[in-house]
Structures are given as structure tokens and as C-alpha cells.
Amino acid sequence: MFESFDSSRNRYASVGVVSSLPDELIDSIWFIIDLDLKGVIPLDNMLAFDLIDNNGKVTMHFSQAGSDVEMGIDLPFHYSSSFPSQVYAYDDGTRETILLPSEIRQY
Fold first, then answer.
1. Which Gene3D superfamilies does the record associate with it (predicted)?
2. How many angstroms separate the CA atoms of 28 and 34, rounded?
3. Which one, of 39, 66, 51, 59, lies nearest residue 98 by Cα?
4. pLDDT tens-place string over residues 63-80
């Protein structure tokens, strides 16, 4: 058994994520995992992040299946209605990838 979301693993974002989110939001997901979640709560290998419009700025809302723990993180980045409403971070034990919901089947 491996420990989910080890920052020493290779990290990626899918083509769909890279084409729909700015780099700073993709990086923010990894920072949230490393600084706010890892070591604070037990993490599954699939994490969900909702992107919410908070008065023109982005709020990332974290959740994971089977857990009552949720967290909203306000970010200083401008929100766009073209952003996906949700992305997932997936850890297969070798690499970690941020995916759109429609891309999960591929992993």
C-alpha cells in the first residue's frame, strides 16, 4: 500500500486541465494538497476540487468521497466562467494527475 499524494512523485495535469485552467490555479491545487491537506487528514487517491466564483475570485472547495471533511480555500486569482466547475487530483501510486471529470475514465 502506498501513501497518497507524496510530493516526491511525478505530477501532471491532463491536456483538458491545461487547456482550461491557468498555471497558477493548477499549481494552487498541488500547494493545497501539500500544505493544507497532507498530514492533516487521511487522503484517498482521488480528491475533488470545486472551483467557485467568490465575488470574482476563485475559491477552491476540497472534498473526498467517504469523508465528512470539506475545506474552502480562497485564492487571489480571478474567476472565469470558462473554468471547469470541478477537477480531480488522482494518485495511482506512481504519478499524480489533475483531471477533468470527463477524463477520469482514462485513468
1. enterococcus faecalis protein
2. 10
3. 51
4. 988 888 899 999 999 999
The enclosing H or E element of 30 equals helix 23-31
Tell me the sheet residues that pair with 97: 12, 90
- The per-residue b/e assignment along 86-105, b for 16 or more CB within 10 angstroms, e otherwise, is ebbbbbeeeebbbbbeebee
pTM tops 0.85: yes
Domain definitions of the chain by residue range: 11-102
Mean of the per-residue pLDDT values of the chain: 92
The SS3 assignment for 92 reads: coil
pLDDT, tens digit, 9 for 90 and up, residues 37-66: 998 888 999 999 999 999 999 999 999 888
Cβ atoms 47, 89 nearer than 8 A: yes
Q: According to the model, what pLDDT value does residue 58 have? A: 98
Q: Dihedrals φ, ψ of 22, to 5°?
A: -70, 155
